[in-house]
Amino acid sequence: MSVSSEPDDRYVVGVDFGTLSGRALVVRVRDGAELGTAVHAYRSGVMDSALAADGQPLPADWALQDPDDYRDVLRHAVPAALAASGVAPERVIGIGIDFTACTVLPTLADGTPLCELPDLRTRPHAYVKLWKHHAAQHQADRINALAHERGEPWIGRYGGKISAEWQYAKALQLLEEDPEVYGRAERWIEAADWIVWQLCGVETRNVCTAGYKGIHQDGRYPSREYLAALNPDFADFVEKIDGPLAPLGGRAGGLTAQAAAWTGLPEGVAVAVGNVDAHVTAAAAQALDPGRLVAIMGTSTCHVVNGTELAEVAGMCGVVDGGISAGHWGYEAGQSGVGDIFGWYVDHAAPEGYASHELLTEQAAAQPVGAHGLVALDWWNGNRSLLVNHDLSGVIVGLTLATRPADVYRALLESTAYGTRMIIEAFAEAGVPVDELIVAGGLTGNRLLMQIYADVTNRPLGIIGSAQGPALGSAIHAAVAAGAHPDVAAASAAMGRVERDAYLPDPERVRAYDALYAEYRRLHDHFGRGGDDVLLRLRAIRNAARSASVPTPAGEAALPQEVMA
């Protein structure tokens, strides 16, 4: 794509807040040309073993972040991307952001994070709970059981289960483990909405996270009576999340003087309503039409697809009217671990001399389908869809003395493709067709992995035409918020790009994978649907052993043993 500029060209900035860093991208409005980018790593990263403020150990399955790391992305990555682009700041007309989700934090009424209050700096529950904070499974189980017991009408919109990753489970954990911090939390807000608040000084709630993570359906949240039945002190929770809902691509406000100083952009520049990294990517990949499923593959995978009709799909993360783009029902599913699984194997399990993605991929690619004799379950970070249980764990079946590192590596790659096929089939069975798979994210460069996905799913696989899919998607929404395009669909057509049919399924490999996938499904149902709860029992034993050796986080009450399990 040509990057030669014209005198009347205007530009927007997209900022993608990921798990370990934030990326800023400067994009030309008329055609989506990417002019400059910069990355800023979070200083505290992911706090999953100890709190950065004082070093206190954290219990199992926690994952926290420091919100000032997000401000640092605005202070460093945005000015650096602008400098790299050579674009004059006065030619920038808008800024948009996307975030991991559900990444959520407690604040005061003015948006001050509780963890920034001096007396709460060493209270873990005052911090951001990252999407992969999975310590609220007990609360999620109660939320689901009570919803079915009461016949709550919204539970079917989420495939029958609310995830431990979403807003309610994490907030209920906060209440029950640190009620003082819960009481001082005047707002409980997605990081996507919080960073927009920091940019424009106005609190908004985007319809995407409100629907998928905040259980906002048909114009309302769960009732006060339902919440009180979970815990009497939880009855007021909706007051902490309720706020003005704004459509995707809408204008949240103008850049404040403080945010202008951080970013180097002009004060008053349009700030787009916040969004989720996966959902903005659909626009970047020109995949807003129904039937085009986008898999954003990185540390985890999020699957999003538009549909024309409302359907309740078992095990899904949710269906939301306008949750991906206006005029469609947006469906979301996901896998809690994908790239993290491959990284775990290379970093912690591969023998010396084999700890290389490139080497293992090369050796794995030389194998015929099924030659390793293995099947793995992709639950190394729990299961988001279809089972919605983060106490599940990984399994590899078929290991022998002849098994070699590349065998295991390929089995792990294949396991994530099987998990995606489970999701696609669940959509199809519920009447939500998936005709094409489009992949975005950092894993698109692994050609073996992409071909495995095409063969396992038996669908043509396209590749997004940008290495910065979420940031480009955020820039597209910023262009709409600034009035440069009439709506997200028009902006996507002008600024997005995709290579369709980059990988096509091979009939012989498809047949071979059908046989292996049948074994995956048997293992999936046996270990995940009540055939044997050994994985849950092992998790309970592990948590009990760890809780005996880890002090209770500061300010928290000791948990009953059944909660720790």
From TrEMBL:
Keyword tags: Arabinose catabolism, ATP-binding, Carbohydrate metabolism, Kinase, Nucleotide-binding, Transferase
Cellular component, GO annotation: cytoplasm
Matches recorded under CDD domains: ASKHA_NBD_FGGY_L-RBK (cd07781)
GO biological process: L-arabinose catabolic process to D-xylulose 5-phosphate
InterPro entries in UniProt: ATPase_NBD, Carb_kinase_FGGY, Carb_kinase_FGGY_CS, FGGY_C, Ribulokinase
Domain Carbohydrate kinase FGGY C-terminal: 294-482
One Pfam family named in its UniProt record: FGGY_C
Catalyzed chemical reaction(s): L-ribulose + ATP = L-ribulose 5-phosphate + ADP + H(+)
EC annotation from Swiss-Prot or TrEMBL: 2.7.1.16
Listed GO MF terms: ATP binding; D-ribulokinase activity; ribulokinase activity
Domain of life: Bacteria
Pathway membership: Carbohydrate degradation; L-arabinose degradation via L-ribulose; D-xylulose 5-phosphate from L-arabinose (bacterial route): step 2/3
Enzyme class: transferase
Family: Belongs to the ribulokinase family.
NCBIfam families per record: L-ribulokinase (TIGR01234), PRK04123.1 (NF003154)
This protein's name: Ribulokinase
